[in-house]
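lol so apparently i was supposed to do this last week
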Amino acid sequence: MLTARGLHKSFGSNEVLRGIDLTLHRGEVVVLIGPSGSGKTTVLRSLNGLETPDAGVISVEGGPEIDFATRPAQKERFALRDRSAMVFQHHNLFPHFTVLENVIEGPWRVQGRPKDEVVAEALALLDRVGLSDKADARPHQLSGGQQQRVGIVRALALKPDLLLFDEPTSALDPELVGDVLVVIKELADEGWTMAVVTHELSFAREAADHVLFMDGGVVVEQGTPEQVFTAPQHERTQRFLTRIL
Ligand code: ADP
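anyway here it is w/ adenosine-5'-diphosphate bound
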């Protein structure tokens, strides 16, 4: 579904990605874990075309291979953006729009799909995450967990090939985390292809097909959840897991 090879990115003298390779097969859930500042968000943003790596190649099934060393045109990066949808740590909903307006904005105004169709789909998606009665509410009238579920619905409404989650629960009160993780797990079980950055290791253990442990801009270790969590090979992975568990 997606292949990234040799991603490099620096912000000034801070080399944040130092040669990241990542493959996502269709229907697969890849979870990225690692200490804060290790480059996980920058990887997701690169896959989504929000960040431009200095070097490396990204290709999405059916699309062109984008070689960042050749400074690709904006059009190519936007092609990447169209294939995936990102759910952010903070939901980033438009505060002055209703929930429904937030969800339809992308598919209706950006993708130019018929409004009736988009509204019907949006209402069905809201229903599915238990928010059908909130369609006309404004984001501030919802709890953090409800806002984040709207964020997920907004991503789904774009009908992307790939869902990217950037610490989707880390800004939530602990009691609201579960509801959001349940939705993400259901999407994983339904066969969505997704990459998830999270510190929720029990979720990672349950939902991931493949886990990457990043530190200092490199993938230190990767494998099945069983391999990475139960029998980590690298001292850095062991240290991280001991700290976080
Ligand atoms: P993680 O998601 O693992 O916490 P990030 O990818 O967010 O790591 O950040 C990695 C490093 O890159 C951090 O040191 C961060 O400060 C830096 N960084 C990220 N985005 C920017 C930016 N737009 N400008 C400057 N530095 C950035």
